[in-house]
Predict the structure of Presequence protease, mitochondrial.
Amino acid sequence: MWSGRIASYVKQKTPLQRILRGFSQVAKTKTEAEGSDINLIKVGQNFHGFQVKDLKDIPEFRITAVCLVHEKTNAQYLHLYRNDNNNVFSINFRTTPLSSTGLPHILEHTVLCGSTLYPVRDPFFKMLNRSLATFMNAMTGSDYTMYPFSTQNYSDYKNLQRVYLDAVFRPLLKELDFMQEGWRLENVDVTDIKSDIIIKGVVYNEMKGVFSENENILGQKLQNLILPDHTYGVVSGGDPMEIPNLTWGDLKKFHVDHYHPSNCRFFSYGNFPLLPSLEYLNNEYLSKYTVSLTSHTQVPKQKRWAEPKTEQISCRFDRMGEPFEKQNTMSISLLLSDNTDVYETFLMQFLTELLIKGPNAPFYKTMIEPNFSGGFTPSTGLDTQPRDSIFTVGLQGLKKEDMEKVTKLFDETVDSVIEKGFDHQHIESVLHSFELSIRHETKNFGLHLLFGISAPWNHTEKIVPSLQVSQLIERLRSEIKNDPGYLQSAVKKENKHRLILGMSPDKNYEANLEKAEKQLIKSKTKSLSDKDKKAIFDKCTELQKEQQKPANVDLLPTLVIDDISDDVEKVDRVHVTLNNVQTQINRVNSNGVVYFKAVLNTNDLSQEDQMLLPLFCYVINKLGTDKLNYREFDSLVSRKTSGLQFSNHIADSLFHLHTYEPGIYLASHCLEKNVESMWEIWTQMFGISRLEDVQRFQMLVQLYMANLTHGIVDSGHVYAMQAAASLVSGSAYQVELLSGLQHISYMKRLIHTSNYKAMLDGILNIAKILFDKKKMRVALNISPDTQTDILRTYENFINNLPEHPKALTPEKETTYITGKVWAPTDAVNCQHHVLNVPVNYCSKSVLTAPYTHADYPKLTVLARLLQSKYLLRELREKNGAYGGGARLSPDGVFSFYSYRDPRSLETLDAFDNSYNWLKQKLEDGIKMQDVFEAKLGVFQSVDSPIPPSSKGCDEFLKRLTPDIKQRYRADLMTVDKDGIEEVADKYLSEKNVSNTGKVVIGPKSEKMDVSKRENEMWTSMTLPSSYASSRAYLSDCLNFLKSFSWLYNYSNTHILVKRVLLHFPCDWVLYFKNLSYEDLTKLLENNTEADCPNNLKTLLNDVEKLKPDCAVYSKPCKPKSIHNSGLSRKKLHEITSLAPLIDDVCRGNNVDSIIDIGAGLGYLSHLLHDNYKRTVLGVECSAEYVDLAYKNQQKFYPNSKNHVKFAQHYIDSNSSEKNNNFAG
């Protein structure tokens, strides 16, 4: 995968941050792991061609670092021994392309398509189901490519190590794999050589999806522009317009030049023995190479500019985001330290945190609190991925007129910091966050170490100092103590290498991209002869045949049943009730940290309050308390804890479908010495009785809204699965309301009212209802050694919390509620959410069984089996989607999904065909080994590492007790082919069609013609982007029409003769008189001058908000006969264009009868019956027209009397009953 996804692990974090925030579990308490050979290794020794260059203890992480160099090739090897069972191995190469054809990215994909030792199609994906890996992937950054994995099983470790090593050093690099993974010309209809030719390919489609996200456009352009001279000046992942310039020969040459041991860095971590890895690596691979020069891959430091530069770029208009005029972005970036200078980079990160983080930070005060933007951009911070680190402050959600002030505010803020320095408590809060992070333990520490050191290690051999965090903190404290102006002097350094980058939306952005892609295809195909086209067709046919061949997976290593543990991990826990509060105490090795988690039941909230919960969770810890204002409170929280976390909590019932526990989740942790301060902070939160700072609240709401739509494109498959699940599951529907597309639409409608005082009152009301200890249950993860003291302070804390006498107690069964969903009984409920991006995200959801049902383990294995054996080939290999699969969620929803998919309806058909494929393969294709491999895939997640901070959380949050988990584990082990066939027939066949929902998120397209799809009821969600509900949209339309009825109650031709202008507000008329003809025309586009009356602006804004996304329909029908010479050409065009659209809608929704309101003389009514055999009731208020319509029918359409009727009627509240009478 490309660095856009590496960013999800390492984005805007320095090596220090990534190391600190990724601290891992302590697997055992003893000092030495069984089988480790760390005590045999000394500096200067030689092992299997490697010389030990350095050996360092890093006590803060309980690590011993071993630095080795392979003597024959100069390959570097870093081993980090730690008594952690979750071991990591990685192979890193410095890859420095000088073009945007995506060379390293496509090579990363292609080397994983088969090797000399394992000549199997896509061994990487095949190994996903033959392993218990806790992580497997490959990633391409701007200047390096890495192949990491992690596992807790030593046999698995050796298996994956062999597959990875052979893949990178001896790949097959076949042309067909290059075509599949990179790009190819292919006929739209792969069976028709005469059909149009298009460009396809996994990476090609992936990068189209990547650059559908505006933040990715900004981040890529920022790096290209501020570091233009070498590899950072190009797109390493590939520009879709440049990818088709890459040749297979280029790919093979790049592998020779860059995938050499001399250009390689090997990494391992954990408690598995090191020496066997060194022996295998040397004997099988490195000994067969000689040293090679690597100067061609080195990245020089960027030459610094003499003057700052300013650039402006365009991006897509985000229809889900803020109004068009507020989708501008401005960023200011400075080139800072070389990332190989460990302390300087650490200092820059510390300064970045001081300048940006929280309401006491200078840039927050000057740029966020004035509330003229949508907050910081995701790229704000220090990016240490390039060799020269980049400091960025960016603002999103800007009006164009506000963009210039960003630069001024930036300079004024820096000048103020230089003059006044930083607040002492603010410095302490940032230092505290670093020190607490050293103690805090999360899962997969080894991977975080790897991600933390890879960028600087790419340019230096001296990487161990990056791990010595305590020394860095001690040096910084000493520098600050000895020189009070130390931090100010660091900020004061003059820097001319500054980039001011603006980005503005362009409503034609997608159209221009589509035009450019068509032109690219034309340039690739215009000179093709028939012979060339035949060669392309034949090559793609060959690729299809290759994709259909069964893979000989027996060549690949695999685990066996004995490698799977029989038992679940037992947590030392007790359950107590203290002063009406249920408390689960998990006794773990917490490394001196106290972890507090709580759930507050929200059943007492009204539905309106429930809808506000996501906003409540975002703002409630940022508004201050009765004792402290928001700045003082944030300072206290930052100096004593990790911060206060609030989030929605929907816990699915383990026993019943549609049933869930609603609540909010609270969490924080602190050093043991600060535990009483943490309780005091939570006591203040629970004691909030007033919230009065409306201005602060309004700013927070605007920040919340600006970030609400971020990531929809990058995580489109998640939104699609969630939306599809909400069509079949009551609990999933609640999740969709609180975090999905429906929540986005609800919040946009709410904000449109601009009644922030009322909203803040609603937030306070929620706090008063929820901050009640009788609604709370708690989990504490603490060390047994300090348990007595911690629990004493906790009990005092609980005793002082407020409680309401009539409050619901969490132990009652009524904490769970049952949700409802609407679904048609005779069709599949389907939705198309229109998003202006060039790729699709598709999902199909099927309601199955709850977690404790006997079918649930079988369905889990079935999902994994379909993903690995069917969906991977259908979606990715054959049709170019970047990803896809199937999964079963705890609410019993079986979900199919695709990611960055060039197809839509064809993908839904592939989902539907999974049952037929399975039935066929169960007879002659699927073996018990395939079922076993699917189980291995399931156990990867079941047995993933759990850090001390999260032990016991499954039971606390989901009620998943060890006994329930043990039964589920035992049932998983016994799943067989018969069980899989049973649940497939029960849930995936036509028998369960009424419990199915489908969703496509993607662009409007001719390919999305749903009119001919049978047994599906489609809703095209092409309402304005702020609406997900047609009911809400219709309500707002009616309110608008009521408010402005005086404006449209006259025909256009009467505007002068009826003196309509007299009804206009005087300030409107004066404003119109001063506008030119061109300015009047621009009013239709909501372009107004500064002196435009406010109520006119309101009208224009409402029109823009309510404007539907209308599809262009261009297939008028040909009437069989026209029997009225008075029918104008205009009317003829109207009815012949409208009739087929009506017919398509009727077929798509299984509608047979139509009411033609305002039928006039019946032209359209008769055409609908004459051409499409529809039954029509024409309703017309004019008795004269009704009489003429019947006369025309008698004369020209006598056979339609039983199918087309007319009624004289004026629509009112009783119309429904009357129309039924007419129809009867």
Q: What stands out?
A: The two ends are 62 Å apart (CA to CA). The mean pLDDT is 88.
